[in-house]
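Researcher: I'd like a candidate sequence for this fold, 426 residues long. If you have to choose between options at a position, lean toward the conservative one.
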């Protein structure tokens, strides 16, 4: 069972903030002594202690996988704009992809744990987090929340085991923030078959995913519906978007749908309009907040390592006041953002999370992320723009994370609607 948020584990007691470990001291980022074995220095208030012992073991397994398998190749794959698809199955074998769905035989876990796993991915590579999250978050959540029992049984175990990779096709060339009204992809029913026509853009994993959840507007009733489109279906074409400067590992694609035929059995049976789609987006928006948190933690840790090693005027630059001010600001951003992510996840577990809760988290955490990665790059001076020094990739990737799953502006307006009772979207 997931640990009650009111009863954190006592096995890890954080050191008093009055005597933090010096950033100039040589230290292991994976097992720092200041928080207890298995705790990150960036987890300054020991939020990880809210996880159950089993969840903490799984977090450590994910962290070790990322350090062993992904960190050594991340810069190389990022520079080549290629995705290490071969790591999807080994990662799935850790058993975290199916947590939260009854059909996957995974252990029952908390939303805090599931978010923490995403943070651990992004802490090493935000692109890899997106690659995994598109399939296990957006695609699986669409099927888990919108699929029939038969659809859930058919797809969720296969996706949790890594045998099937998913993608999520909502955004269009002319519809981003206004998908509720502006969706142009259409679905027309002919007996037991639906015919899809339209285009999608920025669809991660679409060039290699086994199944893509396509969202389209029913020409009969004008309502948004979801469809499971298999790779290779006639009329379905996915073309990789080139020349990106953010999340380069992610294989985003332009999709064209020309007379694509989908059986009624492959329509998500519990999706009856945009309101149902919005429930999926609310949950996955939380995931982006955790991803932004991981991105800023990765940049912060890289800055700590660099400033401890880089010497100027005969001393490590970490010993100078201006650098320490930057590091303290970054850690403050991380700590505040971690608090927001944890609380919103707890609200999800309690069944009390609202659109405004998720929107505030996404807007706040991604804004703090943007400031943090900029401070990390600044702390590394000119070397901060080079991949070899650990910060540049986070700095570039943060721009995409800042934008997707709703821009800051749109999420702020969702919060504003909650405050005032007035919608200011148009």
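Model: Candidate sequence:
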């Amino acid at each position: 069972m997931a640990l009650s948020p009111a009863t954190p584990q006592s096995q890890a007691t954080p050191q008093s903030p009055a005597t933090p470990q010096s950033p100039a001291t040589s230290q292991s980022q994976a097992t720092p002594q200041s928080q207890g074995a298995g705790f990150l220095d960036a987890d300054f208030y020991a939020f990880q202690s809210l996880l159950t012992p089993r969840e903490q073991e799984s977090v450590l397994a994910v962290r070790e996988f990322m350090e062993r398998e992904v960190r050594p190749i991340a810069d190389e794959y990022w520079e080549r704009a290629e995705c290490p698809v071969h790591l999807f199955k080994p990662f799935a074998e850790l058993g975290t992809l199916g947590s939260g769905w009854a059909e996957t035989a995974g252990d029952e876990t908390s939303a805090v744990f599931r978010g923490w796993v995403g943070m651990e991915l992004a802490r090493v590579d935000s692109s890899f987090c997106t690659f995994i999250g598109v399939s296990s978050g957006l695609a699986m959540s669409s099927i888990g929340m919108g699929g029939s029992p038969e659809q859930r049984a058919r797809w969720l175990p296969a996706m949790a085991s890594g045998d099937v990779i998913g993608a999520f096709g909502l955004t269009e060339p002319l519809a981003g923030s206004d998908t509720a009204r502006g969706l142009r992809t259409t679905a027309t029913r002919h007996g037991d078959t639906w015919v899809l026509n339209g285009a999608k853009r920025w669809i991660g994993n679409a060039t290699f995913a086994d199944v893509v959840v396509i969202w389209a507007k029913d020409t009969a009733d004008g309502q948004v519906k979801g469809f499971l489109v298999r790779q290779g279906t006639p009329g379905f074409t996915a073309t990789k978007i080139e020349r990106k400067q953010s999340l380069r590992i992610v294989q985003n694609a332009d999709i064209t749908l020309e007379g694509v035929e989908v059986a009624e059995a492959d329509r998500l049976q519990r999706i009856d309009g945009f309101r149902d789609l919005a429930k999926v987006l609310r949950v996955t928006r939380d995931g982006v907040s955790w991803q932004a948190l991981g991105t800023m933690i990765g940049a912060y840790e890289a800055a700590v390592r660099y400033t401890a090693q880089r010497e100027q005027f005969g001393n490590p630059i970490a010993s100078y006041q201006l650098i320490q001010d930057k590091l303290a600001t970054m850690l403050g951003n991380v700590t505040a953002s971690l608090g927001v992510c944890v609380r919103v996840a707890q609200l999800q577990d309690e069944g009390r999370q609202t659109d405004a809760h998720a929107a505030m988290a996404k807007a706040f955490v991604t804004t703090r992320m943007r400031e943090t990665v900029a401070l990390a790059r600044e702390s590394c001076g000119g070397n901060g723009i080079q991949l070899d020094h650990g910060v540049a990739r986070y700095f570039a990737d943060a721009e995409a994370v800042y934008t997707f799953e709703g821009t800051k502006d749109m999420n702020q307006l969702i919060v504003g609607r909650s405050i005032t009772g007035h919608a200011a979207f148009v």
